[in-house]
Write a structure and sequence with these properties.
Layout lengths: L1 E5 L5 E5 L3 H10 L6 H9 E3 L2 E2 L2 H5 L3 H26 L3 H8 L1
Antiparallel strand pairs: 1-2, 2-3, 3-4
Helix pairs in contact: 1-2, 2-4
Length: 99
Amino acid sequence: MTKKITLPSGKIATLRKGRGFDLLQAQQKAKTSEEIPYALIAELAEIDGQKLVYEDILELDLEDVITLQAEISGKFTEAKAKEVNEETPTQEEIEQIVA
């Protein structure tokens, strides 16, 4: 699954769905843990049809980088939220258990 977004600079980014392998690659390429998000963007994104390397991501406009980070981190937030919501009982379920 891929998602296309228009970045603030007007460039078109295509983000593909990531796998554990992509995260591992990003971790191996990053020099520090702070650099992992940038390396992960490089693993998952194409900009205007071009695959970029980690150093290219560092040269993008700040607004574009922040937008890409939000897209990627938003996927992790959604996955966590779904997990919590599925395990958290509703008020009705709690009342049935207590009754």
